[in-house]
Design goal:
49% of the residues are buried. Strands 8-7-6-9-5-10-11-12-13-14-15 form an eleven-stranded mixed β-sheet, sandwiched between helices. Strands 16-17-21-18-19-20 form a six-stranded mixed β-sheet, with helices on both faces. It has 490 residues and is of the alpha/beta class. It is globular, with a radius of gyration of 24 Å.
Length: 490
């Protein structure tokens, strides 16, 4: 694409009259620049792309987008906001791919990963070819790719959507984080359906207040647009049992579909029956009711199922297909995942890393636990410190033995993080073991028949971030090895 054609999408008040090279790619990392690239200078948290403009030119960049003057030999186009320009230019360069996809975005504090995977499974059951973007990976058809952020930057997103279009994907489902919404990473994504799971305390290290956090999530619904299109309607799927849904209703012009358990909603779960092996409930819609039988466990998963079912119904899928898919799915990696090596106690690994999600999981375990509950839990370093004592309080409240440990301490000393947690449970019984592997082994070594161990916080993650090192670490593998050792197998 010629540079002038590409720049026309920015709708500058001034007309660009400089050189007009052919742009063969767009990059924001100078190390990835090849001949013909347009390099966009992004000022990040740790590095400033403006400092690498010359390196980009040396690597073959034919033009630079910047917020300030840079001394290079190729055209420099100045913009007020290079991140915003990046979103516009990436969307244009890759042919506005989300206009050609049925795009579903899911936001909320907890449940995003499970909800997106449920939606993906139902669509595949309906013989649709799907793409998935989220915390665990990017999936295009049957191929998966690693991902650094829950919601990638605008350049990676649009490039990924372009690949989905080329591989004839019908429906793309993605987790949409509050960071991504606030930073404008999803500007230009033409969502057809936006889903809200819930809002509880998290990420206050970034958003500062719950009000700012709530507003960031609400941008997804505001960005559904103000246009009514009968051929391509927009839907906002909202959790009626969460107070923030009333706020989001006022932020969107899209058709609102509500779901819930307690409050009167468009889509409801009634007659809920839970067991250690799964759940049954009536999924009630305005037209029909179907009995859902699923291997998933917990009230929080009822909400995830309702959110997914609502999105699928709004997409035109049948209730029978939804029920059939939900009966088949066994769960999502690292979400209430059991580790079984023939032991006579239960070990569960879960991603619960917020006060609300930890409480939900422990309440669910409390419903079926025959004896004592152990919880191994920590809090991430360089993240919201305010939730640390809250996590500790919940662990001590619902578990018989609470074991505090490390969870990606990053640049902080694990002992300092543990101290913050301990402030919330002064005078209560707990155990602090900074080494996560040792903490998991302690729980496995002390568990008795019919006890339940919850290892919380990391779920599917296969790494531990200590300082500037990313070390291999998988709660499931560590637990499995500890069980085998206890059983005398190694």
């Amino acid at each position: 694409m010629e540079l002038r054609t590409l720049l026309s999408y920015l709708h500058h008040l001034g007309t660009y009259v400089g050189e007009n090279p052919t742009v063969t790619s767009i990059e924001m990392d100078s190390r990835k620049v090849t001949k013909g690239a347009l390099f966009i200078c992004i000022k990040g948290f740790t590095v400033d792309g403006h400092d690498f403009a010359q390196q980009a030119v040396e690597n073959g960049a034919v033009a630079i987008i910047a917020e300030r003057e840079v001394d290079v030999s190729v055209p420099v186009i100045l913009v007020r906001d290079s991140k915003r320009a990046l979103a516009v230019l990436a969307d244009a360069f890759y042919g506005q791919p989300t206009h050609k996809l049925h795009l579903i975005g899911v936001t909320g504090t907890n449940g995003k990963t499970t909800t997106t995977h449920l939606i993906d499974y139902v669509f595949r059951k309906a013989r649709k070819k799907t793409g998935l973007i989220g915390t665990m990976h990017i999936k295009i058809g049957d191929k998966t790719y690693d991902v650094k952020n829950t919601t990638p930057d605008a350049l990676v997103l649009q490039r990924t959507f372009k690949q989905m279009v080329e591989e004839e994907i019908d429906t793309a489902i993605m987790e949409v984080s509050s960071h991504a919404l606030h930073m404008g990473r999803v500007h230009g994504c033409d969502y057809d359906i936006a889903v809200f799971t819930n809002l509880t305390q998290d990420h206050l290290d970034y958003h500062r207040t719950m009000e700012e956090y709530r507003l960031a999530k609400g941008l997804l619904f505001a960005q559904l647009g103000n246009r009514f299109d009968h051929q391509r309607p927009k839907f906002a799927i909202l959790n009626q049992d969460d107070p923030s849904s009333e706020y989001y209703k006022h932020m969107t012009a899209a058709t609102v579909i509500t779901y819930g358990i307690d409050q009167d909603s468009d889509i409801m779960a009634k007659q809920i029956e839970m067991s250690p092996n799964g759940m049954k409930f009536d999924l009630v819609t305005p037209d029909e009711t179907v009995r859902i039988c699923t291997k998933l466990i917990g009230r929080f998963n009822v909400y995830n199922i309702l959110a997914a079912a609502s999105a699928c119904l709004a997409s035109g899928l049948s209730l029978s297909t939804i029920a059939e898919a939900l009966e088949e799915i066994s769960g999502v990696s690292g979400r209430f995942e059991t580790v079984n090596e023939g032991q006579d106690f239960t070990v569960i690994v879960d991603y619960a890393h917020t006060p609300d999600s930890l409480e939900n999981v422990l309440k669910t375990i409390r419903q079926f636990a025959k004896r004592n509950i152990y919880v191994v839990v920590g809090c991430g370093g360089d993240r919201d410190r305010a939730k640390r004592p809250l996590m500790a309080q919940i662990a001590v409240k619902y578990a018989d033995t609470a074991i505090f440990t490390s969870d990606n301490p990053r640049s902080e000393r694990p002992e300092d993080i543990l101290h913050d947690m301990e402030k919330g449970v002064a005078g209560k019984r707990y155990i602090s073991i900074a080494d996560r592997k040792a903490a998991i082994r302690y729980a496995v070594e002390h568990a008795q028949k019919d006890d339940v161990i919850l290892i919380a916080g990391k779920g599917h993650e296969t790494y531990q971030i200590i300082g500037n090192q990313v070390l291999h670490f998988d709660d499931r593998i560590v637990a499995r090895e500890a069980i085998k050792e206890r059983n005398g197998e190694c």
